[in-house]
Amino acid sequence: MRLLFVAPDMHRGGAERHWATVIPALARRGAGVRLLCLNDEGPLFHELRAAGVPSECLHLGGRADARG
Questions:
Q1: CA-CA distances (angstroms) from residue 15 to 30, 33, 52?
Q2: What's the confidence (pLDDT) of residue 43?
Q3: DSSP structure string for 1-68
Q4: Terminus-to-terminus CA distance in the chain, angstroms?
Q5: Ramachandran angles phi, psi of 10, nearest 5°
Q6: What is the pTM of this model?
């Protein structure tokens, strides 16, 4: 199974902290996981990348804010 997680950023919000736990756990179970941040990286982005999760950030700024 391949999963792409897309987030505006990976700062220390509730959903982001949950993803920082779930994504590595899925990877350990054999899922192909990737993280894509649209605007900003944030500290959890770097933690996931250091844990071996393929991660990219597009740095789009407000043009791609999924929150509107």
A1: 22, 17, 20
A2: 95
A3: -EEEEEES--SS-HHHHHHHHHHHHHHHTT-EEEEEESS---HHHHHHHHTT--EEE---GGGG-TT-
A4: 30
A5: -125, 50
A6: 0.84
